[in-house]
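Collaboration report, partner site 2.

Our partner group contributed sequences for two proteins of shared interest, and the home lab folded both. The records are reproduced in the order in which they were received, starting with the first partner submission.
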Amino acid sequence: MASAVEQFAANLNLGSFAKAEELKQRLWFTLGALVIYRIGTYIPLPGIDPHVWQQIFQQKQGGVLDMFDMFSGGALHRMSIFALNIMPYISASIIMQLLTSMNPRLESMKKEGESGRKKLNQYTRYFTIILAIVQSYGLAVGLENMHSQTGSAVIHAGMFFRISTVITIVGGTIFLMWLGEQITARGVGNGTSLIIFSGIVAGIPRAVAGTLALGQEGAISPLTILGIVLMVVGVVGFIVFMERAQRRVVVQYPKRMVGNRMSGGDSSHMPLKMNTSGVIPPIFASSLLLLPLTIVGFSGVGQGNDFMDMIARYLQHGQPAYMALYGGLIVFFAFFYTAIVFNPDETAENLRKYGGFVPGIRPGKATADYLDYVLTRITVVGAAYLVFVCLLPEILIAKFSLPFYFGGTSLLITVSVMMDTVAQIHSHLIAHQYEGLIKKSRLRGTRK
């Protein structure tokens, strides 16, 4: 027993304990980068009257600005230099992935490996800058047209304000894009997802405090608050279950003679996740939906423009048109991103090369068709799950008029990003433990 404890301590010291220093540095780097991001959301945009903007924002609450403010981590509510957050980068990524699937030249560039990936990333950055310029200029013009009872949102309107706003917001978006890439390379987890995650989590205490305040004032009953809490817990459990759900396709390997020994004949399984696309469809759908809605929100609404007023009215939270469009985009991106991540033809070819086959299915084209059939069926379930979780708050607002916005999309992003980050930390620890065992075996070999 004592020798086993000593061996475990030696392995821990050589592997997990010594190498865990690298994991600590990655965690501290990730935390520091997210703190810098949160500080940036409090740096105000030059030329804005904060009191007037707060009045305007409160008047426009309950619509698209709430969702945009949620993704920006309150940066839009405070009209900071990170008002657009990292959404232009996400929109640019959508455009590049669509173009890659339709353009043979870009598709061949993607297959070139690391060099092709770097070129596509560079094109994505260029698209991000273009989109950020367009959106920030539209934001500047929209701010100039916004007035409250106490005055205009912009202190000194004009071309200088527009140029300074574009430079400031584009610079903030580029900085967040760079910061996300640094988190992915030097930290733990996906940088873009963690930036959105930290912004959502930062708004949870305010939402909880607001709900409790409504309960103290008697606006909502304690049973309603308890029901909301139980519903959140239930949805979190449902999300965890669905994110871990898999369809395991059995793969058989034939027996082969290697020298004088018979090897092979083993069977394994190919795990196909129920939600292969992860949290990407809701983020992509929200990003595309926010682009036109932002233009509508910052333009002719309430200024006698009947067309803009009609679009703003029908695309509010809880409206059938908004829910149909949002759900349709989620389904589209669920299938689209799954097709990008998993290629049945390539997988079937790799199985054939290594002698693997699905029992009862012929190798090659038949295996590819079978995998495509299975993946399509489970993607239907995965897309329905995403639509249900993301549209649940819209249904609650429309049918029950809940006083606070229960964000199904935000909850899905929060839980999924947490699970992914914890899984990456766990993989780092396992890798460090294996490295420690290898070093231990090498030390024993040198002693002999």
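Second partner submission, folded after the first:
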Amino acid sequence: MRQHKNFLNSIIQRIGRSQSNKKKPTPENIINLCHQLISRNGESTLFSLAKIVLMDFERLSTEQKKSFFLQLLEQFSVDRSALNTAISDLNFDDEAQLRDLYKIIEPKSQELLRRLNQIPDGTPALLKMRESLLNFIKDLPELRSLDFDFLHLFKSWFNRGFLRLEKIDWSTSAKVLEKVMEYEAVHDISDWEDLQNRVAAPDRRLYAFFHPALPDEPLIFIEVALMNEVPDSIMPILDTSVNPIEPHSANTAVFYSISNCQMALKGVSFGSFLIKQVVSEIQLEYNQITQFVTLSPVPGLRKWAEKINLSGTNGIPEQIIKDVQTCVGNSSPGIASLRRLTYYYLSQAKNSKGDALNSVAHFHLGNGAYLFDIHTKANDNQSALDDSWGVMVNYLYDLDLVAKNHEDYANQKPVSASSKLTKSIQIKKKKPKLVSLTSSKLQQLDQIRLSGE
């Protein structure tokens, strides 16, 4: 094994030296190398070609990378000639033929990506490649087909069986701790003292998923506060001057931040596995903790309300229309209006698939949590005020109801919410007006009726 590794390292060094003397690569040259890569089988040859392809790709300009992806899509797609022949001769009762057809349907780009992944550091290099690809898809939607190949393989390579859960604390390597500071996406970590409070305070926990191919790169992490009650504000949780509680006295675990770290793994879901495993870890450590709840932001609330205010109000209850008009343009709306508006947004606003329009709501409701409570003035950070008037929400994970809630949400049943919340949020439906008819009006109606007979 050591000899094999030394052999590979020697090849890396030789490739590195040769690359330093080469002219700048072109998309056409790299595509040619890709054709060679999928047509040859010698291990050392495959290794050398794959390494050069990945190194040369990184040296391309943005426009050259775009050209490379377009050529890759065109030249490494499904072999249509072989597919037509296979379909014309297909016997649906022949299992071997059906399996051969499956192989023919697969685009050559998938085999190319598998071969590129076989070399050391191939996986992180392919992650960078997909990250570049994602930047082009908005303007070149045809590249979605190529992105499907990346996503299809990443879902296999990053499935739950390959991931390991690690508890991050103050003894974790500085390299990983720096990554946590860099990737925190919900509540910025201001400095090392702030980070220490999140990972080393007695009543705090931080867990992350790692993959063997990226040992120092967290894929996703979750921050947890152990508390004695369901929180209604993020400020005390983030305040480093607040004295920690004794963790064995806590009865509630609060998930207050979940951050996906790798843009290139968009579409590969880890969050549901992470929450469920973290719940198990906490229960093993503190069996007195029985309540698991989030303190989550409501991204896009203000933008959605402004859009409703401008574009129309078809199908929206009259009370919500009034709340929209009250909140839009107001930096500090009334509590009742803002709570009603938030509740309606999270429970009724849907996308074209029938899922919750709000991405955070979709994530937690899809995992089987239910909407527990809504808090105004819960986050005084300016970006939170601009985005959602500082509103935050609790989603509660009742372990006895998680499976049912998940099924109900998947079947597009009404969003589950606590009785306390639904009672406090009263959305009046527009009632038909009762018209009082005078005798003269009744006579007029009779005349109209008789004339129509």
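Feedback sent to the partner group on the second submission included the following. The longest helix spans residues 2-20. The beta strands are 164-167, 204-210, 220-227, 252-260, 291-294, 296-297, 370-375, 392-396.
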